[in-house]
Amino acid sequence: MSCNYADNLSPYGNKGILGIPEEFDSAESVERKCEELVDWILAARGRVVVHTGAGISTSAGIPDFRGPKGVWTLEKKGEKPKINVSFEDAIPTKTHMALKSLCEQGFVRFVISQNIDGLHLKSGFSRQHLAELHGNMFIEQCSKCRRQFVRSTAAKTVGQKPCGGMCRSGEFGQTRSCRGGLLLDNVLDWEADLPERDLDMAFMHSTLADVNIALGTTLQIIPSGNLPLKNKKYGGKVIICNLQPTKHDKKADLIISTYVDDVLEKICKRLGIEIPTYNASEDPTKAPTAENSEWTIPAHTVKELEKEYNAKLKTFKTQQKLNTDLPKSITKVMKNKKRKHEN
């Protein structure tokens, strides 16, 4: 079951602030805030980045971690979540499907996910518009060439351990095949280094965004929890949609306290976008050729974004002297790339 994933992680004492009561805005307030958010999305002209956490998957039957009924909240009481759908049986929520449409229609440019449940993958979301900072249960990665491949079932291991088989890169028409690479699960353990290409894309997109929207996350894990703020000193806006208070509420331009599915439904309605239902035929994990599908971020998308990042950074009006060299700026701003908790 999905909550058993947490049992396989290494022991970690500081799991953050747990079990804070949920808060709900009035119906009138939600309508007003969603209308304001849509205005900002339209003004951004596609320069919108969405940051997703465990809260967007609870309606799929996958429990969150720090909510009143979250995995770690209940663990502290010696209990287990009552709702606990397996990763294989879980299907994308209304939020997952809405984000797919918003991206395809050009309203959302990029999604940065902390989730390992594979629901963005299952929704049919494009890999070149998605960073998975903490991994994906339905992806395995070669220990040598670092290419990633789709699995039809969730990995049984976590922490980037061998999960069976050898690298299949030679099966995809590359001029060179990877000889001897072991396939590892793609899920990070505590304090593991984040995947470099995903992190670089996430950092650049977060910085360039006119609007960063955080959905279903208390933003307690770094560096992912700090990424929505990277556009603030360049005049960008930060919106947080979550049922619990977050560590960055004071820095947000707008906070919407209600279910994320409701927020996405209202946004799509105002933008005239239909939210599709999940279609198994578009789910890479369900395809007859699932085991032959690659899931690696295309290298050219990173290089193209790097050029845009460096070019636009020169035009930003700021009182601070900026280092526009990408690798150095990332090293400077993100001194610690390990996944860990920060109060």
From TrEMBL:
Residues 27-274 form the Deacetylase sirtuin-type domain. It comes from the Eukaryota. It holds the Pfam family SIR2. One of its GO terms (molecular function) is histone H3K9 deacetylase activity, NAD-dependent. This is protein acetyllysine N-acetyltransferase. Its EC number is 2.3.1.286. The active site is at H134 (proton acceptor). Belongs to the sirtuin family. Class IV subfamily. One of its GO terms (biological process) is negative regulation of transcription by RNA polymerase II. Keywords: Metal-binding, NAD, Transferase, Zinc. GO terms for cellular component: nucleus. Zn(2+) binds at C142, C145, C167, C178. It comes from Bactrocera dorsalis (Oriental fruit fly). InterPro entries: DHS-like_NAD/FAD-binding_dom, NAD-dep_sirtuin_deacylases, Sirtuin, Ssirtuin_cat_dom.
